[in-house]
Write a structure and sequence with these properties.
Helices cover 32% and strands 0% of the residues. With 101 residues, the protein is mainly α. It has two domains: 34 residues, no CATH class; 57 residues, no CATH class.
Length: 101
């Protein structure tokens, strides 16, 4: 679905990428920009939920020493989720990956 352009915004929505390497290049550039100052800082306009699921965000924050969303500085809290709403920390779990064959 990514290659088909399903997740693009605006007029580019549903316009396919030319190749998988073009898409990978955009992801790589975006992730490098997001974390250019290291993993301990949250960059403006690059929300964690753009790249990660809730569980990965939670595990990343735990690796930095956080035990809940309440422990984050206010300026960091507003940049973690684009919508500004946080899931319930204790309800975040890793879901198993199901493969359909």
């Amino acid at each position: 679905m990514f290659l088909d352009g399903k997740f693009k915004k605006g007029a580019d929505k549903n316009v396919p990428y030319k190749s998988a390497s073009e898409l990978k290049g955009l992801f790589t550039k975006d992730i490098e920009e997001t974390f250019k100052n290291g993993f301990a800082r949250v960059e403006v306009k690059n929300h964690f939920d753009k790249h990660f699921c809730d569980f990965t965000i939670q595990q990343f924050l735990i690796s930095l020493g956080y035990h809940s969303f309440d422990e984050l500085k206010e300026e960091e809290r507003s940049l973690i989720y684009k919508c500004g709403r946080f899931p319930v920390w204790d309800e975040i779990t890793e879901e198993p990956v199901s493969v359909s064959i």
